[in-house]
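Notebook, student rotation project (T.W.).
Task set for the rotation: take a protein with a known small-molecule partner, predict the structure of the complex, and write up what can be learned from the model alone. Partner molecule chosen: 2-acetamido-2-deoxy-beta-D-glucopyranose. Sequence and SMILES entered below by T.W., checked by me.
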Amino acid sequence: MKTAACMRALHIRPSILRYRAPHRALQHPTRHVTTATEAATNVRSTGTRTKNFAYGTVLTLGLAFGYLYVTDTRASIHEWLLVPALRQIYPDGEEAHHAGTHMLKVLHSFGLNPRERGVADSRGDLAVEVFGHTLNNPIGTSAGIDKGAEIPTPLFELGAGIVEVGAVTLVPQEGNPKPRVFRLPSQNALINRYGFNSEGAELVASRLRQRVREFAYQAGLGIDEAAEQQVLDGEAGVPPGSLLNGRLLAVQVAKNKTTSEDDIDAVVRDYATAVSYVGKYADILVVNVSSPNTPGLRTLQNVEPLTRLLSGVVQAVKNIDRKTKPAIMVKVSPDEDSEAQIAGICEAVWDSGVDGVIVGNTTKKRPDPLPKGYLLPASEAKLLLEQGGYSGPQMFERTLALVSKYRNALDEGPKHPSPSPSSILEKTSNSTSTSSQSSKTTTTLDLDQPSPSALSSNVDDLSSSAPTLTLKSTPKTAPAPSNPRKVIFATGGITNGRQAREILDAGASVAQVYTAMIYGGAGTVSRIKGEMREDAEQQKTVTKR
Ligand SMILES: Cc1cc2nc3c(=O)[nH]c(=O)nc-3n(C[C@H](O)[C@H](O)[C@H](O)COP(=O)(O)O)c2cc1C
Ligand SMILES: *[C@@H]1O[C@H](CO)[C@@H](O)[C@H](O)[C@H]1NC(C)=O
Ligand SMILES: *[C@@H]1O[C@H](CO)[C@@H](O)[C@H](O)[C@H]1NC(C)=O
Ligand SMILES: *[C@@H]1O[C@H](CO)[C@@H](O)[C@H](O)[C@H]1NC(C)=O
Ligand SMILES: *[C@@H]1O[C@H](CO)[C@@H](O)[C@H](O)[C@H]1NC(C)=O
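Predicted structure of the complex:
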């Protein structure tokens, strides 16, 4: 309660916050973009005096505690003061989220946003290879945190190696009626049924374009379309999505609400159009799809619709006007976890040419409270009855198990060899006709070139599932470019460094967080990375002894 009084005392007038940061002057050549963005912002920021208390508090604390301390993500202020304060001020989870997003955006425009300091990541001790890029760390933020791509840069500055923005739907849509987000503080968990509220692909694309143009201008390339294209074509020497070395930007797209899931052609059209707007600003495109959820899934007939859908996305991405195309990942629900469903999804992934899978999401189930035997307070028990997806630390074990299952299934390789790998084999070995052989039988070829990664990239993982492996040369690391190992990102219940490490050990390249940030605040990504480093140090000491 002291906090509330303090905030009232420190109340800063909103007019100060409307101050336009100097770099905004750059927006001139793309004024239509500015107005659209600002219109959206203004609608959201009207009224609510309480929000201004929050901004005032943050800014004033910034002065009182010192800029360096408050803007350093390792400062505990983010966890112990700001997070509970936001929760006090905004009883509604969605309001709190908007306030948090807006605060980051405003603070960023002043250069006052919390950020990770130091050069820890540049040491490369946490680096991972993803899609031919070296990510400087394997911790990501997941979809839903920044649905409208308003704060990708500040999110990267919190230390994330991957930032996923979206989901973005093709046309703007409201989502479900409010309230639609519910907190279970005793569990550090959430239930949400947003229902894909989105400002639409066109507006989101305009924000992403603006970001690229400002980058182009600062890099001295100009601020027009040609400058934008140069950056997108990689001529600035940074990934075109993240605009930061060692980081990648993922953009998630979803279909119109009104488009029926069963009308594959219509869904593909939605995705293709959304991709035509936002695709070129992404390093990774993510699609949200449901698996073929029918009995007898293993028959080709049931995998076919999903394959067709994903192939449509692959085709749309090929049409993107950019030198290097974004990688494509499909996000799958943790509730679709039967062997048949996983096998079906993996088959569609291989057959369509999608590059990887984001394993995990919220669950429709209601996991038992933690610690074991804990009784939820009545107010929270009641919330379990709300419809929606549940997220929280209880999800972790399921996510971990699911990652292992997907890793094994994907590493079995394609059931039907795709034309490209066999033509490569023909070109490089030119010995026998390989077109009708399964991937396993091609392993007897004497390959100078690296073989398809399903065979080569992790022979240890495969030894049980592919006992016939008789490669004469066994390149262990470099997969053939035409058939690289599928990439896995994991999401669901990841809250600390030990868990992130376990997830990576199970075969994922990136561990994404959402709910942990809602409860842990802006320093969460830094904390998780710090814990991973401490763990690694301890391991070293143990092995030395
Ligand atoms: C409020 C909220 C909104 C979300 N919105 C999306 C979304 O638009 N698209 C999506 O794929 N996942 C969405 N998610 C799922 C998260 O990206 C994440 O996969 C999930 O919450 C599990 O991770 P966590 O335990 O770290 O929160 C949302 C989650 C929450 C809590
Ligand atoms: C989705 O919405 C857009 C814009 O209204 C429309 O052009 C498109 O046809 C819709 N998609 C489908 C499959 O109806
Ligand atoms: C996303 O996938 C889920 C199931 O996995 C499905 O129920 C939902 O309709 C999809 N939403 C969109 C917008 O594609
Ligand atoms: C992922 O979770 C979000 C939010 O809970 C939900 O709207 C979406 O349908 C889910 N997607 C999949 C593929 O399950
Ligand atoms: C490779 O095989 C094709 C068809 O069998 C043959 O025409 C060609 O001469 C061969 N090339 C080499 C280099 O052996």
